[in-house]
Amino acid sequence: MRICLIASSRFPVAEPFAGGLEAMTHALARELVDRGHDVALFAGPGSDPRLPVELLDLPDFEPSEIAMADVNAPSRRWMAEHHAYLSLMLGLAGGQDRRFDVVHNNSLHHLPIAMARTLSVPVVTTLHTPPLPWLESAIALAPEESSFVAVSRATARAWSHVTDAAAVHNGVDVSTWLPGPGGGPAVWTGRLVPEKAPHEAVDACRIAGVPLVLAGPLSDPDYFAEHIAPRLGDGVSYAGHLDHAALARLLGQASVAVTTPAWDEPYGLVAAEAMACGTPVASYSRGALPEVVAPGAGVLAHPGDVADLARAVLAARGCDRGAVRRHAELHCSLTRMTDQYERIYARLVDRDLAA
């Protein structure tokens, strides 16, 4: 099939990834091409030039000083995103969509949903986050124009007041996230931001007497300076923002991976990555993590309960690493995810042709 993938215009689809959305889109694009599909990708500047896909250009736009002087003018970043998605959707509506059989929207922008009715090919949108007001508005105005998929059953339930969405769990490439020997310190990975609460992972590991390595982008420097930097040392270190190869080595050496969502995690890609490396997960039981971390592959703790998380850290270290890896192969693989999306694409194309 000929597939147009839409990602974030703000963040590149390239390592080290800004987040799970970019990592998932990169893996999906590569796997679709490997299966013989023709893929074009709309994504932020600096996206991986080694991806075997056509990268769709983002047009430059700089609003005039006169326009930005308006008291209600949005930020320049907002305008740049708006212009990029408007240009894409107008181009597709103007006939470029005939190059494709299906459009798969993985962005968090409202225009691919709001303008789906202007396209002559089916559009499927993956919901990567809890409900956002701009997306709710777009869906409310065009509820039948897109099909919707959520990255977990929990996320599908969160959107159920707006739309029905099938659940397709994200997947990781288990041929690159390889099992390691374990036995090392605990590892926490992800964006270092308040809603991920890595400081609670530090506190829990201190209670458990387990050293901890943090890795991920400093998406909120003020949070890092106030809550993370003072906790470093005495068995706790920060490894930086790592690419997948370095992260897989770190996870493979870890005795346990810790996740500490202070929000309803839509999926929890970091847990899938850890389990693919054979590393059990100790996590708060929030959002989709109870779907992702099965008994035997990790241990769940009461949300926000640092002492209970310390218990989970110690208990998870006793999981059989081979069983953890098998769980990831069966339930968290890129192959399984792509199989499901291929079936969705085929069903939408067949329905479109029948109409």
Automatic annotation (TrEMBL):
Record key words, sorted: Glycosyltransferase, Transferase
Tell me which residues make up the Glycosyl transferase family domain.
Answer: 189-314
Q: Any idea where the Glycosyltransferase subfamily 4-like N-terminal domain is?
A: 19-175
Q: Which residues form the signal peptide?
A: none
Q: Which domain of life is it from?
A: Bacteria
Q: Which PANTHER family match?
A: BLL5217 PROTEIN, GLYCOSYLTRANSFERASE
**Name under which the protein is recorded:** Glycosyltransferase family 4 protein
